[in-house]
């Protein structure tokens, strides 16, 4: 299914407050119809690191803030373990509305992965955030986020923890970002087998330490 995309809803300004206000009116795809609200990024212009996840979850959709649910708590613990100051970061998602399903007769909203067309429709907001924040480093959390910036052929299993730049992308140039790294989304740790979660968390922290080392270099 084709969507009109977010481009027509973007303001001329790249002030974060202006972007947040404009994103509330976005009808670039149909995810806005079921979600409670637009969940834009959080942080300050000039943040050194931008973390990009897939989409807001149930708690994020209700709160209107990114990374405040269970995965967000794992994320915060990992940042602390990797010696990354949350105040230096800007956190956002490739898709700004919560996509979910419900089992028959159930009220609980279950995460549903956004389609490629939904990611592409929302991509102008992500590029506008890159302009507004101008981070030195971008960390893609999960395959959806990585493919939103590095292309649909990117495979997290092959390139996890590697450094990339965006110089070859026509609309995400090297003037915006020095380094890009992709790792897992913290929600994958929670979804994994309980007896392997400690190892998965440690591996996640190891990836974040690559980012910490970049800051120190």
Task: Describe the structure in your own words.
It is built from eight helices and seven strands. By secondary structure, it is α/β, with parallel strands linked by helices. Strand 3 and strand 4 (110-111) form a beta hairpin. The longest helix is centred in the C-terminal third of the chain and has 20 residues, at 197-216. The protein is 38% helix and 12% strand. The chain has one domain: Uracil-DNA Glycosylase, subunit E. InterPro entries: UDG_Type-4/5, Ura-DNA_glyco_family4, Uracil-DNA_glycosylase-like, Uracil-DNA_glycosylase-like_sf.
Give the total of beta strands: 7
Which H/E pattern describes the elements? HEHHEEEHEHHEEHH
Biggest pleated-sheet summary: 5 strands, mixed
Strand order of the largest sheet: 2-1-5-7-6
The CATH class turns out to be Alpha Beta
**Residue windows where pLDDT falls under 50 for at least 5 positions:** 168-174
